[in-house]
Fold this sequence. Notes:
- The chain is mostly helical.
- It is built from eight helices and no strands.
- The protein starts with 5 loop residues before the first helix and ends with a helix.
Amino acid sequence: FATEGVVPNLWEQLQPKCKIEKAVVGLLTGALRNLCCNTEGFWPATLEAGGVEILVRLLHTGSSTAQANSSSVLASLMVAAESSSRRVLSAGGVEPLLKLLAPGSDISVRAEAAGALRALSLVSKEA
């Protein structure tokens, strides 16, 4: 999919210039979550498309579904490509992940945010 343009197209849909409904953002991030672990070329396509920055933005502004999916993809990314942890830190990913651990957040969001923070702490001495 990554080499056929599907993954870059999904990231393009999530660019800030594209005005789409929150429910659709949840579906798009869900598709990325499903593709991330089994798709050859997914991670390079993600990094090239600015995926880290998009995901961190969605941690702030997305629906619960988008926040959970974004946290999950970030966790998988940091495990698959350790150097990506620096990009997550540079994009300001820690603060929103910590905020998502709050009791007011949906339980699935809290679980995925905790998983992303765990992945970050495993691969980054800076975290």
